[in-house]
Structure formats: structure tokens, C-alpha cells
């Protein structure tokens, strides 16, 4: 059977890598980066949430520990 123009082309990894970086650069231009104020605010919210949840888990652990020790006695 004769080769047609739609025949499978030979894979070139260097062209694929170059295409990946071109597309990545193009996509990075579309990103809307947050301002420094937004980053600081979001970081503070995350740290506060982690501290609050940590304290909540610590209190539950203390309550369950107290309950189990009294149950065992």
C-alpha cells in the first residue's frame, strides 16, 4: 500500500519539548497573579485556620483522654 500524506510522522522528542515550553509560556501570560496584600491576607487566614483546628483537635484529645482514663479506673 502506498504512503499517503496522512501517514504517521516520526516522533521528534525535541520538537515536543519545545512545543511544551512554548505552550507553557503562553499559558503563564494568561495567569492573573494576586497582589502582595492578597497573598499576605490569604496566608494569615490559612495560619489562623490551622491554629484554630489544631486547638480544637487538642481539646477533643484531652476530653477523650480524660474520659477514657476515668472509664478505665
Structure described in brief:
The chain is mostly helical. Helix content is 73%, strand content 0%. The chain has helices at 13-28, 36-72.
Notes on the structure:
This protein has 73 residues and is an all-alpha fold. 73% of the residues lie in helices and 0% in strands. It has two helices and no strands. It is elongated and about 75 Å long.
SSE-based structural type = mainly alpha
What is the element string, with H for helices and E for strands? Answer: HH
How many DSSP H or I helices? 2
- Beta-strand segment tally: 0
Q: Helicity level, as a percent range?
A: over 70%
Mind summarizing the main beta sheet?
A: none
User: Taking Cα atoms only, what radius of gyration do you get, to the nearest Å?
Assistant: 29 Å
> Termini separation (Å)?
87 Å
Uncertain regions spanning at least 5 consecutive residues: none
Strand content: under 5%
Mean pLDDT: 90
Shape: elongated
Features:
73 residues, mainly alpha, elongated
Amino acid at each position: 500500500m502506498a504512503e499517503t500524506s496522512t501517514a504517521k510522522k516520526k516522533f521528534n522528542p525535541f520538537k515536543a519539548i519545545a512545543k511544551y515550553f512554548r505552550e507553557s509560556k503562553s499559558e503563564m501570560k494568561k495567569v492573573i497573579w494576586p497582589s502582595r496584600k492578597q497573598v499576605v491576607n490569604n496566608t494569615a487566614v490559612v495560619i489562623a485556620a490551622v491554629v484554630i483546628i489544631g486547638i480544637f483537635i487538642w481539646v477533643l484529645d484531652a476530653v477523650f483522654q480524660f474520659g477514657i482514663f476515668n472509664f478505665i479506673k
